[in-house]
Amino acid sequence: MGCFACFDGGNKQRRKEEEKLASDEARAKAAEAAQKRQEQFEKSAAGRAARAQQQGMAKQAANSNKGEPVLKWQMR
Prior knowledge:
With about 80 residues, the chain is mainly alpha-helical. The chain has 2 helices and no strands. It has helices at about 10-45, 45-65. Helix 1 (about 10-45) packs across helix 2. The chain is elongated and about 90 Å long.
């Protein structure tokens, strides 16, 4: 079989191209499915709650430490 390896060069190249096309198609389908899942999640109650929680955390982080030290203490 080793003697005839040079005769299979065209088939190998064609197979690689077909595998690459199939891989690209699968990747595109997976990305589309992930996008649909993301959109469905954002429309769901859990998605809205998660978005509201993130916005609340962002507001709290922006307003929490207006240049003042977090820990305050006094010497008496």
